[in-house]
Amino acid sequence: MEIMLILVRQILQMFLLSGLGFALYRGKKITAEGSKALGNILIYLALPAVIINSFLVERTAEHLYGILYSAGAAAVILLVSILISRAFFKKDPIAAFAGAFSNPGFFGVPLIIASVGQGAVFYVACFIAFLNIGQWTYGVSVLNGQPVLQGFQPKKLIRAPFMIAIIIGLILFLTQIPLPAVVTGCLSTVASLNTPLAMFTIGIYLAQTDIGKMIRKLSLYKIATVRLLLIPAASILLLSLLPKEMLDMKMALLLAAACPVGSNVAVYAQLHGKDYAYAVETVVISTLLAVVTIPAAAWIARMIW
User: Fold this and answer.
1) Which CATH architecture has domain 2-304?
2) For the segment 233-252, what is each residue's pLDDT rounded down to a tens digit?
3) Do residues 21 and 202 touch, judged by C-beta distance below 8 A?
4) Taking the model in full, what pTM does it have?
């Protein structure tokens, strides 16, 4: 029950931050171009700092096994998520993308830090990496109706900020190179921007939608059902196969998998000339409903595990 209260409190705080973003946009204090600038800060600075920070832990046998287990579990969960979403949305590419991929970096990490602890972010680094790889490959192919990997450019993936951050983090973790306090302090400060900026951005997305029209779209609730109920349920069952001693890792991975639709669906939809407004609506509706579904998923998991 305690973890549910922590999660509800944290999600409500995040919604208040979203409300600030909503107010800034509706009050014409920030524009759509300004929101893109916030997105760049998130993608190129805040999330990479969070990822690198998560690797600044002592290299122990527990952590080495943890990263191997978490990588394997993340890969399986994401594959199952793709298969479930594909089964429900064969004729709706945006829905197939939205259902398959959650928002662990910008929505999940703050919840994990609040409910499990800063150290647990270490266990979702591979989840974030695999999810982004899946979006770059499978996600783009679904949006464009192409075979998977057609047009895929590995060089672009390797140069992506999250990949660079993971490589740097792994090097620091494996070599245990000590960083000066001024560097770690800077990293922590930049990483702390992740939550407020991400929530401001979601609030700005919400401000750009016709809320009355959006809440009447049944297709959005079908996407939310897959994203927030079916996939977390499958994730709970899959994670039940891991040892009981790995509770923190299991909970961190579940929270990552149970997050609402990732905001990248809107980014990719816009880049590939698809229905950007519809993509934004999938993000907004699932984010609003997540205030109930994420704590419920965590509570059910604790009962089962």
Assistant:
1) Up-down Bundle (1.20)
2) 999 999 999 998 999 999 99
3) yes
4) 0.88
